[in-house]
Amino acid sequence: MTDLNKIDDLVHGALEDFHETPSKQVIAGIHDQMKGTNRWLRFSAFVSSVRFIIPVSVIAVLTASYFLFMNNGTEMSADQIAFNNQNSHSIVMPADNEKKEESINNIQHTINNIQQPTNNIQQPTNNIQHSTAKDKKIINYMQEDGVGEHSTENTQQPINNIQHSTNNIQHSTAKDKEIINNMQEDGVGEYSTGNTQQPINKNQQPDKTTPDSINSNSNTELNIETIYVYDTIQVIDTMIIYDTISIKSTEENTSILNDKEYYNNSFFSIEPFGSFGKINNKNTASADILTMMDTSYSGASYLNAGFNVNYHMKNWMIQSGLSYMKFTEKFHYTESILQVDTTVSTEVIPGGFYSYDSTLLGIDLNLIDFDLDLIDFDLDSTWVDSILYVDTINHVYDTINQVYDSVYNYQLDSVYNPTDSTVTTVTYDSTKTHNIYDLLNKYTYLELPVIIGYEFGNKRLRANVKGGFIAGIFLNAKGKGIQLTDEGLLRDLSQLPFMKVNLYGYFSGGVSYKLKDNLYLWGDAYIRPQLNSVYKKDYLLSQKRRLYGLKLGLRFVL
Amino acid sequence: MNSEEKLIRDCKKGKSAAQDLVYRKYAGKMLGVCMRYTGNKQEAEDVLQDAFIKVFTKIRSFNTNEKGSFAGWIHRIMVTTALNYIRDNKKHNYHSDIDEVEPENYEGYDQHDDAESSIDSKKVMEIIQELPTGYKTVFNLYVFEKYTHQEIADELGISVNTSKSQLSKARTMIKKKINEYKNATIISKAI
């Protein structure tokens, strides 16, 4: 058994930490197969992120509030209808001529009853402001058709009340006009309710001042009382006009009225508070560069200020303007130090034997002119990009000088001899393999948005959703960036190939709140994914910014 | 948050750079695991690729607090994927007649045990890879994954006795091959 355990232990010990380098096809295959999955993972991560949930929640709450607000208005109007109809049902027409006087008294009572709901009309309609000629047509029509003239003295008061009410109506819609037309074509009675729905022949209408002309034999509802009721019905019809106005009405109609007010204007918006938010960078480059970028990024922010002009067409609007955009990036960048104790110059004679006494971390062949086959170096050393770490070259032998001893012919410590043989002294610390920079990079752009939006809401508070594009024209960049052709060395940003125009998509949801007649406070929550790279295609790094944040401003009526 | 947690979080977000780093960190060792279960490096790389795709696809289900180390989680995926690969390719035969199960017999081996400890790990890997699939599967699960015979039987759908038999035969064969290798080395040096 011990022997068996020995076998197990032997194999386990030999293979427990066994490493084997996979071929490049494996990672390439993984990349190929993960493309779609990564897209889905990124989408899922975005959907479940705060920067998605918050704006969507805000929009959802605003939308829900809006519809809730609208529904409450309709319910209130429906109550009013029920109340009014109930009153019109209370009209009871006695047919007996002997009870004429009593009937008239009843009618008087009925009309008095009608006055009550009619008076009720006044309150909501008083809320409606700005009358138009269309509304006046309603009254004119009533006068032309003799609605008011056929009324008894007792009915004058409610009619006057209605006139007063309708005179207060300002701004009607096509729907109101349709109602009037329908009344003209189909007869007013059809818009009445309950007892008043029977068509009435206008010829049967009595002289308002001669109650004796009333057909006293009539047992139908078309007697004098009916006529009086008819007049009263006109009042009720008018109430239904009120209903129609108010239903669609108390809220929506107000909205319509405000739309006219609102959308007859263009607006000038400024962003005195700027827009602010965070930046996510989507970078694509080699894994080494991405690692360097991801770990070196400590924060990015931006400030955007400018003005916009909105042109409204009904609920739709077009927005454009001009703004100044400044991105700021904090960079903790780790730059590998080219460490050379001993200069490796072109004086090294090809064909000789040389040995290195240090760990060879990397060799830039451009810096060392020698025959690799003849040089003894440590193949097992870890290879690190851009670091040439050579302590000493021991010139053992060369075919020309026939040197066999160990004289250090090229020992020039702390001197860096680059490709062009220009000798450059670098600050050298044998314990330091990297330079760490704290950089603050700044990029400025002039931005031109072209955005369309849809607005809805009431007079004071309005919500909107917007979408469009923003073109950012590159102005300048200050700071340091990675010059990838030099294996990660830092260069001035002005040397990097920036795109002249950055193109962004733009999606937002927001609200505007009326402060004064011509002044609105507004705020938008938005996301701006960049569509093209910050850099030109020939640059190894592709960087796309994704901005999200809040925007606040003031909007003036032009 | 340490660097590995950040790496895992970025992998969960589908960042290919983070996936690259995870791959670079674990691929070498995990290829060794896969090679133990397969016949050659190419098959092992196929398993490795499938397993890493599973790692990156299922990484959202990985919870640092609940499931232990990330490396252990990746290791389990490698083993599971390797077993699935073996099943799918039907290159093995776990099942042997219980009657054929031989008692463990350690006789007949020569006495070069003292030299076994110095054997190269690559040679050991070769020897493991040359084992019949059933042998090396049971051997790997028992020796490296610390499975019991009952767990191996459940995992592979074989009987406990078959598992014991396969393990015994695997040990026998390994021992034999190691000794052959050592003998050849001694002869070579003598020459």
Describe the structure using short key phrases.
heterodimer, A: 558 residues, alpha+beta, three-stranded mixed beta sheet, elongated, B: mainly alpha, 9 helices
Task: Describe this structure in a few short sentences.
With 558 residues, chain A is α+β, with helices and mostly antiparallel strands. Chain A contains ten helices and 16 strands.
Topology, pairings included?
The complex is a heterodimer of chains A (558) and B (191).
Chain A: H1 2-15, H2 24-47, H3 50-89, H4 100-127, H5 133-144, H6 153-168, H7 174-186, H8 224-249, H9 252-263, E1 266-270, E2 275-284, H10 287-296, E3 297-313, E4 316-336, E5 353-356, E6 375-376, E7 393-397, E8 415-416, E9 424-425, E10 434-457, E11 461-478, E12 480-483, E13 489-492, E14 501-516, E15 519-529, E16 542-557
Parallel strand pairs in A: 5-6
Antiparallel strand pairs in A: 1-3, 1-16, 2-3, 2-16, 3-4, 4-10, 5-7, 8-9, 10-11, 11-14, 12-13, 14-15, 15-16
Chain B: H1 3-12, H2 16-37, H3 41-58, H4 70-89, H5 113-116, H6 121-130, H7 133-143, H8 149-156, H9 160-190
How would you describe this protein?
The complex is a heterodimer of chains A (558) and B (191). Chain A has 558 residues and is of the alpha+beta class. Chain A has 10 helices and 16 strands. In chain A, the strands form 4 sheets. In chain A, strands 1, 2, 3, 4, 10, 11, 14, 15 and 16 form a 9-stranded antiparallel sheet that branches. Chain B is mainly alpha-helical and 191 residues long. In chain B, helix 2 crosses helix 3 (41-58) and helix 3 (41-58) packs across helix 4 (70-89). The longest helix of chain B has 31 residues, at 160-190. The radius of gyration of chain B is 19 Å and the shape is globular. The termini of chain B are far apart. The model of chain B is unreliable at 95-116 (pLDDT under 50). Chains A and B meet through helix 1, helix 2 and helix 10 of A and helix 2, helix 3, helix 6, helix 7 and helix 9 of B.
